[in-house]
Amino acid sequence: MAADHPSVETPIIHNLRNSKGHGFECVVFDGLYMPPALMKTEPPEETLESIRDIELHDDDVIICAFPKCGTHWVWEVVEMLRGGVIEYRKQVKETQEFEIIFKKGIDALPSPRTLNTHLYLRMLPKQVVEKKIKCIQIMRNPKDACVSFFNQCRDTLAPAGFEGDLAEFTEIFLSGQMFFGSYSDYLLAWKAELDRSPGQPVLKLFYEDMKHDPVKTVKDIARFLGLAATDQFCEEVANACSFKKMRQADKELKEEFDIIKFWKEGAIGYYRKGEVGDWKNWYTVAESENFDRIWNEKMKDSGITFKYSL
To answer: How far is residue 59's CA from residue 75's CA, in Å, rounded to a whole number?
Structure first.
């Protein structure tokens, strides 16, 4: 994804649409494609650069994941565990997301802060590594992530929306010609960056394991954060954060966040299915095998493997 950085005065907008006119327009920052619509008030490069200078608190927790890999889910779990009560936050997780509220917004948040991001480690505050801030990394099998991302983009208004079919989107997803780049690049970059930061406290979670045994996942998170949560409370958190209950809470309780009003009328929103293996309803055998061929070539030396069904 080599490209020139956009200048502060006149950001370069990269047209990544395919021959059918389907795709995205992005800016580039530190080699990563980013949606320009998120950066409305300042030049994109300056806005994103400010994230690196954020002063972090020792009790900050950062949830890190590629889009559609479970950030909303884990964010709600962490908030309940840290709050000690079974109560949904009225705010959405985007109110604490680095690449949406940037330095000014993060600085204004009171502790304890459960921050979240889709960015690479090198793009986050320098103090993440300097202060050894606890991070939770979530990974999901790429086929389900791709299908979920496709459905979100299909339900999204321009300029973040996508008008093509799944085959076109899959090609874009695997090649990285879209905002946040390719999922494989994301995973490989995080692995390399963590290898250069020994001692960084990171809890690695797999979406599929979370679905298979949510109570164990909640207990693992509580233990990682040093929280004295009882088995019963962890079970209550896991139950409250089931996909069905979180989808209902999203409809009934969550406050609107004007920065992200981008859904088409009648859109399902973030909570579509949340299942493991739904990709089988979308890809033919030939399409699945082609996906595997491209993905496995990119990830062959990573040591990262996924479950594609439960």
So the answer is: 15
**Sheet with 202-206: strands ordered across:** 114-117, 61-65, 134-139, 202-206
Residues 6+ apart with CB under 8 A from 296: none
Whether residue 57 lies inside any domain: the answer is yes
pLDDT reported for residue 1:
44
Rounded CA gap, 117 and 132, in Å? Answer: 17
The CATH number of residue 133's host domain is 3.40.50.300
- pLDDT tens track for 149-169: 999 888 776 667 788 999 999
User: What residue numbers bound the domain in which 288 lies?
Assistant: 49-299
* Residue 22 CB-half CA count within 13 A: 16
The total number of structural domains in the chain stands at 1
Does a structural domain hold residue 3?
A: no
One DSSP character per residue, 44-104 reads: HHHHHHGGGGPPPPTT-EEEEE-TTSSHHHHHHHHHHHHHTS----SS-GGGGBHHHHHHH
Residue 174 in domain: yes
Are 51 and 123 in contact by the 8 Å Cβ rule? The answer is yes
The structure tokens listed for 54 are 């954020």
DSSP assigned state of 3: -
Tokens of 89: 């936050």
Residue 293: inside a domain: yes
